[in-house]
Amino acid sequence: MPERFERRAAAKINLALHVLGRRADSYHELDTLAVFADIGDRLEISVADALSLSVSGRFAGLCPEAESNLVLKAAKALKERLGFASGAAIHLEKEIPIGAGLGGGSSDAAATLLGLNDLWGLRLPADDLAAIGETLGADVPMCLAGRGLRARGKGERIELLAGWPSLPIVMVWPDKPVSTAEVFGALRKRDNPPLPEPPPLASVKEVATWLGQCRNDLEAPALAIAPQIGAALEALDASEGCLLARMSGSGSACFGLYAAMELAKAAAKRLQVERPAWWIAATLAR
Predict the structure, then answer these.
(1) Mean pLDDT value across the chain
(2) Of 41, 108, 139, 217, which residue is the catalytic one?
């Protein structure tokens, strides 16, 4: 087997997120559509005697300490599940903002499980990895799937989207982390209706029109906590060619949907000039 693997941990973008109720296990019942960017964090995983984690990148300084980082938690959960003593040296290049609602930590954990499955030659099926991922966080099974999907329950009941085009998107993080727990705590209405059934859609404009029927139920409480989200939504909505602007996940990152990648790149370039302190990226999401 090779002694080193690289994995990209793609940013997750929630196109819509409906909160249906509170569960007995402290999670919430959700109905969400998510796609995955072609950019994200990067992991290098190499053979070693023990488990270790090093971090670099733009947002390395905001990462949780090693023992509480989801990368090491994922590696330890996999080892404990299988009951053996193999190690790995893991390096994380952290480029997804933290506290942004882009699934950064969950995507890192998913990439770790996939990378170690290769490095250690385990050949575990996707369902087994998803079962381990579910113990780490509700978003990890989605990030293991890594392509357009609808997720229900707390996020573990996944159906892949069929017949949707790739989506040109601009992601904007207004330099303000928010706590997922705090956003859920500020949510006033928890018994909302589910998503309408997502149909096959041929164009980005059709996707944007259909998404207009949907919501992110966490946007209002997140806005109350971080008004910067409103500035990000306004900037996206005012950009040329934006078909839809919405917050992703529990925030504070927002996204704009565009009909073509050239429009998304141009909008991202202009926004970066106007808001140099923000993290802004154009991506093709699938």
Answers:
(1) 96
(2) 139
